[in-house]
Amino acid sequence: STDPTTSVRAELHSLSISNPTETLQGIKDFMRIEDSFSEVLQSNQYCSDINWKNLLATEAADRVAQTTLKPSIQTARVPVFELTCNLLYDFEPNELLHFVAYAHLVRDLQHGVDITFTRRLRKGYFYQRAINCISPPTSTSTTNQIKAYCQLVLSSDYPNVELQALTILLDNELWVDAIHVMKQVFSQISPPLQCALFHRALIHFSKGDVLQTHLHQIWELLPDTFNVLDFVSVLKTIKTQEEDDVYVPERRLSVNELTPYILQLLSQTHPHNKQKESEEIAQNQFQ
């Protein structure tokens, strides 16, 4: 038989297209979010009399109002989590990560009181659901959308998410944010992955004509296993790209400017070449 909720789900999606901000506000009203998900998340509290199990379900969530989504209106079964992610991504990207984190908080807190929640979910579960339902950044994406997407990636359970997030920021020339992400994750990742991030950053910053501006900040993250041979490999890659693209940077780093960095590499305590491992990590990052 035909699923009786299909027309309702279709209508809600239609409303999210014709009146997206009102639909998003309706969802917030139903979830009793007075201001923002970030503020509610900080309070570590949630509304316990809402059927969160169905709201966070992967299929059709239950008991959400058909039009305004307010509890006083007649309700019907509609999916909510993915729809909310899409609306936040489009209109309030700064809130997207907070909403997904809030969903995890609710799910874990409900797990302790609701026997219908049979197991705790892995940390990245809702983050991966959010990634799967929104579009990856494109040339038309806003800066906040790109940053929100990268934060979801970093919070997911995918392999080598640090390199994936960094690459997205570098491809979109968000240089300061790229350095911030490197600082955020560097102490938590393996030496080969550190080298992969460092290698990737040097090449992209050079191609973007901003290496001379940010090299000092990047160099603060110099991995112990990154040596002078790795640096020479980076310089060769940069030179090859310039020749292939018939591209000349506005300002190359001079030998005098590079000398202090080369001398530091020569004095490294453990000059082991991790270039091969770094390249393997870069090649194996998820698409």
Could you please describe the fold and organization of this structure?
Helix content is 60%, strand content 1%. It contains 15 helices and two strands. It has helices spanning 6-18, 20-30, 37-43, 52-55, 81-91, 93-111, 125-133, 143-155, 161-171, 175-185, 191-207, 211-219, 228-244, 255-266, 275-283, and strands at 64-65, 75-76. A two-stranded antiparallel sheet has the order 1-2. Helix 7 packs antiparallel against helix 8 (143-155) and helix 8 packs antiparallel against helix 9 (161-171).
Q: What does this entry show, briefly?
A:
The chain is mostly helical and 287 residues long.
Question: Which class best fits the helix and strand makeup?
Answer: mainly alpha
Main sheet record = 2 strands, antiparallel
Count the strands?
Answer: 2
Order of helices and strands: HHHHEEHHHHHHHHHHH
Task: Please mark out the parts with pLDDT under 50 across 5 or more consecutive residues, or reply none.
Answer: 1-6, 60-78, 113-118, 245-251, 269-274
What percent strand? under 5%
Rg, Å, rounded:
23 Å
